[in-house]
Design goal:
The chain is mostly helical and 212 residues long. The chain has helices spanning 5-22, 33-61, 66-89, 95-117, 128-146, 156-189.
Length: 212
């Protein structure tokens, strides 16, 4: 099943990635800097909403498929990686925080792919800490894309920066959590070095009686 409403929403999320990035490259005569922030944030927020909606509809309608299970996390990681790289380019996020988050996503994706080949996907299923990490991550990106004051007395950029730090810390925590769960299976599949056995000395030929 390559196309249903949940999968269509996932494709929409992928399509919106270059859209919210391209907003910042439009001439200021078309969109003012403030309008760019609001427009890009809105596109990203819609994309983030589809992340929740496609999973909800797939479970509610029983429209899950192997292709959808593959495409959904790919779309999520592309969206987050593009947003973080954009924020670094805009000097709104530290590069090392983006590297931590993107690197973790790549590492855990590879781990899940490997565990799937072993038939142990459930061992590294999304944990509650991963959901908190995702919520902090989305909050940080939305706030840093907006960058404009929204709540009186609260700095939107500061809120986004704090949320990004929280997301990076939870990113490392959740990575070690998944690695700990996968560790027993890593040990099971590790190649074993054959034990070296001492060679029995070859019997010497009887030299016969010594000459006198």
């Amino acid at each position: 099943m390559f196309l249903n409403i949940p999968i269509a929403l996932t494709w929409l999320r992928i399509i919106l990635i270059p859209v919210f990035v391209a907003v910042y490259y439009l001439p200021d005569a078309w969109l003012s800097p403030v309008a760019k922030n609001w427009t890009a944030m809105s596109f990203f927020a819609v994309a983030a909403l589809t992340d929740w909606l496609d999973g909800y509809l797939a479970r509610r309608w029983g429209a899950t498929s192997e292709f959808g299970a593959f495409l959904d996390p790919v779309a999520d990681k592309l969206m987050v990686a593009a947003a973080l790289i954009l924020l670094v380019a805009l000097n709104r996020a530290e590069a090392y925080l983006a590297i931590i988050i993107i690197g973790r996503e790549i590492a855990i994706s590879a781990l899940r792919e490997w565990m799937a080949q072993l038939g142990k996907t459930k061992n590294v299923a999304v944990a509650f800490i991963g959901k908190i990490k995702t919520a902090a991550q989305m909050t940080a990106i939305i706030a840093l894309l907006l960058y404009e004051p929204l709540i009186p007395g609260v700095s939107t950029s500061l809120l986004g920066t704090i949320a990004l730090w929280v997301a990076a810390i939870l990113t490392l925590w959740s990575m070690f959590h998944y690695l700990r769960l996968a560790a027993p299976h890593l040990a099971e599949t590790a190649p074993r070095v054959p034990e070296s056995r001492p060679r029995n000395p070859s019997p010497r030929a009887d030299p016969g009686p010594s000459p006198r």
